[in-house]
Amino acid sequence: MNMDDKFTTFSPWTRKRWHAKVPDSRPTRILGVVAGALLASIGLELFLMPHGIIVGGMTGVSALLAFYTEMRLGLFLFLLNMPIFMLQRWKLNSSFSSLSILGLLVLSLGSFLLHPLPALTSNPIPAALVGGLSLGFGVGLAVRFGGALDASGRLFDWLRSRSPLPTEAMIWLFNCLIFITAIWLIGFEQATHSVIAYIFVFESIKLTLSGIRLHVTVQIRSRRSDDIQQAIALYLNRDSSNVNQTADEPATLHYRCHRWEMPRLKSIVKDCDPDSEISIKS
After folding, report:
1. Mean per-residue pLDDT over the chain, rounded
2. How many CB atoms lie within 10 A of CB 139?
3. At which of 162, 186, 210 does a domain end?
4. Domain span holding position 41
5. Alpha carbons 81 and 156: distance in angstroms, whole number
6. Which residues cross the membrane (predicted)?
7. Highest mean pLDDT pick, 78-92, 121-135, 138-152
8. Least-confidence region, from 75-89, 136-150, 184-198, 248-262
């Protein structure tokens, strides 16, 4: 899972974010990364792995190898991620690199220690939901405090300069390959549960990084502002709070809307003007 690119993997929107400030002290960052790694290991070993549920990124590859070889997940987490972190250490911020290596060590060790314990639920659906949330919040917490628990993002950043495909496309193809392999190795039902878990991982990471804010301010730049205003007023019953327009420049519309309305708002705007620019301020 590429934590740095998660917000742009499936969304074409241009987003502007204002995060809550994270304490900058070194001990606080270490505790945050360690807590995130422990939470992620709980999600993996006590919920996902006992039911054959995998997720994307190097964590998913590690899970597949663990199922196929019947070896410990923590071993593959360490072997697959550590070389990438070490090889790219000279390119990365030293603080990020050291916190990522610490998080990986805690995640691997936590996985080893929790492996003998029984699963906390015998039903795969709750396991996928709770395990996905636990893993996602853990990964997001580690990223929020300046580290990472999965090196796939760094790998694809390195491959980007050597491939015609953008990073987002490579990540998407990589994760699709993981789920296709999961169908072959562990069966269609477990793969379906894996997709559910991955969605919850994805959403909980976004929630951890962006914070819990239900309403956002949306800025729309378009030369067809009148059509957009009429459509949004008709389908969402919302009026633009501000309109800035000059003779040579596109109009700028500002809306305040609920997060749940954002996909519909985007669809309305793009139907009216496919070339419009949408920015979101949390």
Report:
1. 82
2. 32
3. 210
4. 6-210
5. 13
6. 30-48, 54-80, 92-113, 125-149, 169-188, 194-216
7. 121-135
8. 248-262
Q: How far is CA 210 from the centre of its chain?
A: 11
Instruction: Please state the rounded mean pLDDT for residues 250-269.
Output: 83
Check residue 50 and give left, alpha or beta (phi > 0: left; psi -120 to 50: alpha): alpha
pTM: 0.68
Contact 115, 45 (CB under 8 A): yes
Which of 126 and 159 is assigned the larger pLDDT? 126
CA distance 227 to 41: 50
d(CA 145, CA 37): 11
**Cβ within 8 Å of residue 228, ≥6 positions away:** 220, 222, 253, 268, 269, 272, 273, 276
Would the pLDDT of 31 be above 80? yes
How far is Cα 282 from Cα 269, in angstroms, rounded to an integer?
19
Residue at 257: amino acid letter: C
**What tokens appear for 173 in the block?**
């193809």
Establish if 1 belongs to a structural domain.
no
Provide the b/e sequence for 234-260 (b: ≥16 CB within 10 Å). eeeebebeeeeeeeeebbbbebebeee
Asked which of 187, 210, 233 is the last residue of a domain, the reply is: 210
